[in-house]
């Protein structure tokens, strides 16, 4: 009798890699698919509208000056102090387009240091 050489059991790593790869593709596709807009839908043209900040947002002008509800604010910490405890949870900033990024980061850090739990930057978003 001839003895066959014993084959070592193959590890199921290839099958595991295939399953993980298929799951990756599934989640990539399902995460990026969105229902298309109705072709008959005409979006609003906002080119001629005057941009206004939300009423509860801290406005940062191009020169770094701060204002809230039309009144000037001396410092980010002074703004946080004037807010009620519940309003300090989330502070919105509306920066001017010409404001340097370094200034915006400094103001956001100052707001966090003064007690703001979350600082949100309001920006313009367009659908094209």
Automatic annotation (TrEMBL):
Record's keyword annotation contains Transmembrane helix: yes
Q: Which InterPro entries match?
A: ExbD (IPR003400)
Keyword check for rRNA-binding, yes or no: no
Q: Which keywords, in A-to-Z order, does the entry hold?
A: Cell membrane, Membrane, Protein transport, Transmembrane, Transmembrane helix, Transport
Transmembrane regions: 12-34
Q: Which Pfam families does the protein's record reference? A: ExbD (PF02472)
Cellular location of this protein? Cell membrane
Tell me what this protein is called.
Answer: ExbD/TolR family protein
- Give the organism the record lists: Roseovarius aquimarinus
